[in-house]
Amino acid sequence: MLRVRAATLADLDALMELERACFSPRQAFSRREYRGALAGAGNVNLVAEEDGALCAFIGVLLDGRTRVGNVFTLNVHPSARRRGHGAHLLREAERRLVAAGAELCALEVNVDNEAAIRLYEECGYERVARLPDYYASGYASLDAWRYARALRRDPA
Ligand SMILES: CC(C)(COP(=O)(O)OP(=O)(O)OC[C@H]1O[C@@H](n2cnc3c(N)ncnc32)[C@H](O)[C@@H]1OP(=O)(O)O)[C@@H](O)C(=O)NCCC(=O)NCCS
After folding, report:
1. pLDDT at 103
2. Which protein residue has the closest C-alpha to ligand 1 atom 10?
3. Is the CB of 59 under 6 A from ligand 1?
4. CB of 144 closer than 6 angstroms to any ligand 1 atom
5. Which of 10, 90, 134, 138 is the most buried (most CB within 10 A)?
């Protein structure tokens, strides 16, 4: 059974292992970047566990001033893909962002990342802009798409 819970600094080793399973060394976020995201007050960091093993993560940085959340990564272990975990984590993160007062959720995705692009579009994200040379290295194309979705509160 899938269990979703808030990520903590104690998950750092497992999160780095997951990051390495999802991205090449030239694409992967560093341990320092993960530590900063996990330590940031207001950020929404969720892990999904299956039978006690960490299999997916979403990290969203929340800017309390602009009320915009930015997905800095969404990782599902290769052995756990296409079972809805990515979409489920994104929805759960959005729910928590709304509870924290966020009005918009935005993200950047490499223009060649068809799996993630499909997922975000299925989840209602709209393409906002192409960001040339968004990535420093590690991708065939360094461009990103920016996507965004307005977050709505459920009617009371
Ligand atoms: C992108 C990623 C997070 C998707 O996670 P996932 O748990 O497999 O996705 P889901 O099962 O929730 O898929 C939801 C929908 O997204 C789309 N989708 C997901 N993976 C896809 C793929 N490989 N090809 C085409 N569409 C895909 C489908 O529409 C899917 O619905 P369906 O399975 O009913 O057809 C996962 O492939 C991953 O971790 N990739 C490496 C890391 C990465 O690129 N993260 C995004 C950074 S911006």
Report:
1. 95
2. 84
3. no
4. no
5. 90
Task: Please give the distance, rounded to the nearest whole angstrom, from the Cα atom of residue 37 to the centre of ligand 1.
Answer: 22
Strands 53-63 and 44-50: antiparallel
Question: What are the pLDDT digits (tens) for 99-128?
Answer: 999 999 999 999 999 999 999 999 999 999
Buried b or exposed e, range 85-94, using 16+ CB within 10 angstroms: bbebbbeebb
Query: What domains can be seen in the chain, in order of their start residue?
Result: 2-150 (3.40.630.30)
76 lines ligand 1 (CB under 6 A): yes
Ligand 1 contact via 20 beta carbon (within 6 Å): no
pLDDT of the residue at 1: 87
Give the number of the atom of ligand 1 that is nearest the alpha carbon of residue 82: 11
Q: Looking at the whole model, is its pTM more than 0.90?
A: yes
Residue 11's SS3 state is helix
pLDDT digits (tens, 9 = 90+) for 67-79: 999 999 999 999 9
* 3 state SS for 53-111: EEEEEEEEEEECCCCEEEEEEEEECHHHCCCCHHHHHHHHHHHHHHHCCCCEEEEEEEC
